[in-house]
Amino acid sequence: MKHDELSSRFRDARCLVTGGAGFIGSNLTRRLLAAGARVTVLDNFVTGRRRNLAAADALTVVEGDVCSLPELPEIVSESDYVFHLAAQVGNVKSIEDPEADARTNVSGSVRLLHLCKGTAVKKVVYASSSAIFGESEKVPVDEEASTAPASSYALSKLAGEQYALLARSLWGVPAVCLRYFNVYGLPMEDNEYTGVISIFFKRLQAGEPLLIFGDGHQTRDFVHVADVVQANLLAAQRATPGRVYNVGSGRGTSIRQLAETMIELTGKDSEIIFAAFRAGEVRDSLADVRRARTELGFAPEVELRQGLAEMWENVCRSPAT
Question: Looking at residue 65, what DSSP letter applies?
Answer without folding.
Answer: -
